[in-house]
Batch of 2 targets.
Target 1
Amino acid sequence: MSFNDTEIKVVQWAEARQIIPNSTPMAQAIKTLEEVTELLTAIHRGDKEEMRDAYGDILVTLVVGAALADMDIKQCFGEAYETIKNRRGHLREDGVFIKE
């Protein structure tokens, strides 16, 4: 299934459960933070299955949050890429990229 198809299904799922239009972008951002915490725990434990679940849940919260904010998540993603595509910097020993 393509990202576009999955995005549509996620929005439809959120509408069917009244998350859209009754939640808020802030509530979804808080949910995203909860899912990121679950991801960090899964990474720390080396639990690939839980990591996969957390990455997916994070994407769901981002799609729903963008929909609630009347934004297109693909456009946000594309604009972020356009911002970083020519970014220069260096990778530290711990794997963190530091932009110039």
Note: Strands lie at 89-91, 97-99.
Target 2
Amino acid sequence: MITAIVLVKTTVDRVGEVAESIADLPSVTEVYSVTGEFDLVAIVRVRAHDELAQVIPGQLNKVEGVVSTETHIAFRTYSRHDLEAAFSLGLEAK
């Protein structure tokens, strides 16, 4: 699974509508409204890199109200769960 984090700038008056439209796209798993330079952060998950071209410039960027995007592709996922599994030796705690 390939994960892309897409930072989205929208027109000021359409942040909510844009977020809902992006969230409705099949490969988008989450959309967050955020503070800072960007208005939204969208998490896109696909099986192959080629699909990113279909989803981001082909669908997400075409949502009415999207002004610009910046895409970051994740190399590796870290979470509390993953770290606990990585450092566990299978020994029971005493």
Note: The mean pLDDT is 90.
